[in-house]
Nucleolar MIF4G domain-containing protein 1 (Penelope pileata), 341 residues
Amino acid sequence: YIPPQVRKAQETIDDKKREELGRLKKIVNGLINRLSEPNLTSISGQLEELYMANSRKDMNETLTSILMNACVTAVAMPARLVMEHVLLISILHRTVGIEVGAHFLEAVVKKFDELSKSDAEGKECENLLALIAHLYNFHVVHCLLIFDILKKLVSTFTEKDIELILFLLKNVGFSLRKDDALALKDLITEAQRKANSADKKLKDQARVRFMLETMLALRNNDMRKIPGYDPEPVEKLRKLQRTLVHSSSTGKETQLRVSLESLLNADQVGRWWIVGSSWSGAPMISNADSKTQQKLRIGKVSSKIMELARKQRMNTDIRRSIFCVLMTSEDFMDAFEKLLK
């Protein structure tokens, strides 16, 4: 039972909160709508101030939902626009904290997983993949996630998947080759095996042949063989990113080294990649073990030594046992052996 006055107070808090969130959404939306390369500095600065003035959770949720609405549409988004939006996230990821990039990445990956399972006709999957690819380009996420997504697409190997593999390789193929050439080689071998064992109708398609040619060009580091490949815009924005975060480092130390499985199961096993967000209810941690603390065996020790330990304020089992070992050992080798035990 909630008394009427308490209920009323709660309702006013909710209304107040709703109003604040609405105002926040309006401000962030206004900033994102004006986003372009020349005013990126001022917009990232204003968003930083908003992060300082509001709760991180509200800001993360608001920013993620606005960016998703802007970038995930049924028509293919211009590459430049997607890059600028992701660059903004990467700057906030470095200046505000890694939970900004982590929250956005998780939302994008979950949406991609959901849409790749459905038979959506639009270009939403491509747009989501473009976001993930540029999150990797701007050092928010490690290549581990990209390889996980590629492996997943190769394992299902439908027409739609082949299109997505091509799209991803065109965007980040050469960066993947630089970061982990061995994993890329394994992936290419797997894709060739899958293409050979595919049914006749799929095997004869020009798209499959084109995908294999693209992969061979990647393996041989031949950029000319990939039509429409232009690393210039990404490089230009990377330079801008370096000037905006005022850091001599490459940003690799803030990269989220997280796998696809971890992101999809984040609600069950916690978000270990964000400091303070791991969860003790994780299935790999058993509570029964932690309750029964192991007693330390230190053998028979005289009451005189125990009295000395008490006088020296050795107030836990482990302290007492170390003290007793040091006091009763014959020489340093004996002490070393006992301490190891």
User: Anything to note?
Assistant: The chain has two domains: 4-265, 303-340. Residues 284-296 have pLDDT under 50 and may be disordered. Residues 4-265 form a domain with the Serine Threonine Protein Phosphatase 5, Tetratricopeptide repeat fold (CATH 1.25.40.180). Residues 4-33 form the longest helix (30 residues).
